[in-house]
Design goal:
- The chain is an all-alpha fold and 281 residues long.
- The protein is 66% helix and 0% strand.
- The longest helix has 28 residues.
- It has one domain.
């Protein structure tokens, strides 16, 4: 019974965020449409560069042009999901911490987890990248003659969930620094931005000292390259197709431990925005 109540509450909170997003769309329709179209153009621009390069040379780093297009489509889907669920600093949470805005959330009659999970849902104004990804995925799947089954779609959703978990967990892991130092206010923003810059690069053919750090310490290779090859039926580097999921579970556990420790420090000491050496005092 408690689970049902919690699920209803989460759905209601998502609905409130969606209503606010729709209200902004209807109030400032011109600017909202401009933003949506801009997202689509930006995404197409990011995806087309690598695809055209692969098309010109008949493939790149062991991937054909159509496979590169598929990888770009996956990256666009991830970008779209991030913007739909995390565009209000609930993933780039170091900004909330460094600016002393976490206290505002403590005053609300909701748990911190519920607020962070639902506050950024924008299904109307932040759908440009997601729509681009869906269209590109359909085109790439058709050009690759993929046999789409229910199991394959479940695998796609599972990899997308694992990738989003990795992005979120890494952002929270580094955001814990903002509990201790005001200069770390924008660290999660920088980390997440680096993800988009590198996620559309194929890593096949690269030396091991380049590839393995990008699958472990800086998991940009797990943002699109590795999951895409798994969905195409050939996991790279003789690793298991479950590696992205295993890594997501590991980094989520680590982020939970580190962030909770930082949050306890924050509760005891308060925001460093207001201490004598805080740079925003």
């Amino acid at each position: 019974m408690g689970v049902k109540i919690a699920v209803r509450r989460i759905i209601k909170l998502f609905g409130i965020s969606a209503e606010m997003d729709l209200a902004w769309l209807l109030r400032d329709t011109k600017y909202a449409v401009i933003m949506i179209v801009s997202d689509i153009i930006q995404n197409i621009g990011m995806c087309s560069g690598m695809f055209l390069l692969a098309f010109r040379f008949g493939g790149i780093c062991g991937m054909s042009a159509n496979e590169v297009l598929f990888m770009s489509a996956y990256s666009s889907l991830i970008t779209g999901l991030f913007l739909m669920f995390g565009a209000r600093n609930n993933i780039e949470v170091s900004r909330l911490i460094g600016r002393g805005q976490m206290e505002h959330m403590f005053l609300q009659p909701l748990s911190l987890k519920a607020q962070l999970f639902t506050c950024s849902f924008q299904p109307f104004t932040n759908t440009g990248s997601l729509l681009t990804g869906i269209v590109l995925m359909c085109v790439a799947a058709a050009r690759l003659h993929l046999h789409i089954t229910g199991l394959w779609i479940c695998m796609l959703l599972g990899y997308l969930l694992a990738t989003m978990a990795t992005i979120t967990a890494r952002a929270y892991l580094v955001s814990a620094l903002a509990f201790y130092s005001p200069s770390a206010e924008d660290i999660s923003f920088l980390i997440v931005n680096e993800t988009w810059y590198m996620s559309t690069f194929p890593l096949g053919g690269m030396p091991a000292f380049v590839v393995f750090p990008l699958l472990t310490i800086m998991p940009e290779g797990l943002m699109a390259w590795f999951p895409s090859l798994c969905l195409l039926g050939r996991p790279p580097l003789h690793l298991t197709a479950y590696y992205p999921v295993i890594f997501a579970l590991f980094i989520t556990l680590a982020a939970g431990i580190v962030f909770k420790k930082g949050l306890n420090h924050y509760v005891r000491k308060g925001s460093n925005r207001y201490v004598p050496w805080g740079f925003r005092r």
